[in-house]
Amino acid sequence: MTGRTKAENSCRIRVVLPFHLRTLARVENEAAVEVDDPPTLRSVLDALEARYPVLGGTIRDHVTQKRRPFLRFYACRSDLSNEPPDTRLPEAVASGKEPLLIIGAIAGG
Amino acid sequence: MSSVRLLVGTRKGAFILTSNGTRKKWRIDGPHFSGWEIYHLKGSPADPDRLYASQTSGWFGQIIQRSDDGGKTWEPPGGSQTPVSAGMPKAESNKFVYEGEVGEHLWYDGTKRPWEFKRVWHLEPSLNDPDTVFAGVEDAALFRSTDGGHTWRELPGLRSAKGHLWQPGAGGMGLHTILIDPDNPGRIFVAISAAGVFRTDDGGITWQPANRGLKSAYELPDPDSDVGHCVHRIAMHPSRPGVLFMQKHWDVNRSDDAGGSWYEISGNLPSDFGFPIEIHAHEPDTIYVVPIKSDSEHYPPGGRLRVYRSRTGGNEWEALSKGLPQRNCYVDVLRDGMAVDSLDPCGVYFGTTGGQVYASSNSGDDWTPIVRDLPPVLSVEAQTLAA
User: What residues of chain A lie within 8 A of the CB of B62, using their CB?
Assistant: First the structure.
C-alpha cells in the first residue's frame, strides 16, 4: 500500500531506482519507504538508506549529503535535483499517486 | 590435485576463471557486478574463500563487495536489506573518510587542493587475518578495515610523508600497490602514482619516502626528488622481502635494502616503459615485465605482444612470445593486470585492455589465451588452492 496513512501521520512513498541501484538493493520494481508527513527529499532518502543500507553513499555523499553529480531526482514531470533537501515533495508523490524517480544522468555519446 | 582461481577485474564487471593444476581447461564465471568497473579483487591468504572486490561507478561511487565462498555469492559488508523496525543502520563499508584535517595536495596547475576520495584502486588482505584488509585509494591514502570490510579507518601518517607535495598525474593520484613484509608485520610498502614509494616500520603510524636512487629526468624538475616519481608497480618475493622490484613510468628498478635505495635494471629491454612487474613464485630473481612502447603510445613495441623475463634479477632480459600475437597487437597491460600462481612449474597470467587473459603454465615459455573477448582488463590476481 502506498500513500497517506493518516492514523500514523505518515505516508508511504514510491521510489523508482536506476537499474544498478535496484540490483544492489535487490529491489525488483519500485522501492517504497514510509516517512513522516509531509515528505521531503531528505526524509525519503534517509528512509531509503535505512531500509536498504547498501544504498548509503550511492545517491548522496556519506559526509556532505550532497547528491552525487550524475544522479537526478524527478517527480511529476519536474526536476527536483537542485531543490533544497527539505523541500516538500509534490502532493501526488505524498499521496502515492506518483513515484519519486531517481535517475542516472545520460552519459551522452 | 591443486587448482588455480584467477580473479579478473574489468571495465564492465568481474570474472572468475578456474582450472585444475594442469591449467589446460578453464571455466569462466561471470560477469559479476555486471556493468560496473571492478578495479581490483583479491583473496585472503589466510582464508582463500574470503574475497574482497572494489566496485566503482561514475554514477554511484564506491562499493566494497565481499565473498565468503570463493566468489559464488557476494555481499557488501553490512549492506544487506534490513527491516524498517531495525531503526536507522547505515552501510559504512563504502565510507572512506580522511582522518582529521583533510589537508591539501598540489593540483595540476600548482594550486593546492583538498584531498577528495574518489575510488579504491587496490585491496590487500592481511597475510594472516581474513577480517583485516587494506585499501589503497584515490586521492592517495591508505585505509584499513579490521572487521571484514564493514568499516574503514585511514592510516593518516602516510599523508604526512610530504603529502603536501604530491601531485596527480594524468591517470589520477591513486595508491595502487600495498606490500606487507611477511617477516616483519610492522613493515608495509605502498606505491602511489606520481608520488612514489613509501615505507612504514611501525604498522602504518609513521611513513617515510623510499625513493632514493630513482631518476625521473623527463617527469620531474628535480630528477632525484624525494617524492613525485611516477612508480607504476612494485613487487616483493615473500622469501626475500628486503628485495623489491619496480616498474616505473620509465625504468625498471631494484632495491636490495628494503627501499633504502634503488638502482636501474632495465638492461636490454626494448622499452623500459610499462606497468606491471611480477616475480616467479619459486625463483626470487626471475622477474617479468611487459614493455610498452612509450608514455605516449601505450602498446607493445612493433605491435608484438611480448613478456620479458629476467632470470638474473634484472639487466639481462629475454623475450617470451610463443603463443602471443606477434603482429597488429595494440593492447596495453595495466599495473594490476599480471599475476603468478605457486604451482610447479609456476603459472604466469596477464590480462589486456583488449579483453584477453593469457596464461602460461611453464613460467612464461609458452602462452595461450584463456579468454579473448572480455571487457578491458583492469586487474588479475591468482589464487593457488589446495585440493
Answer: 57
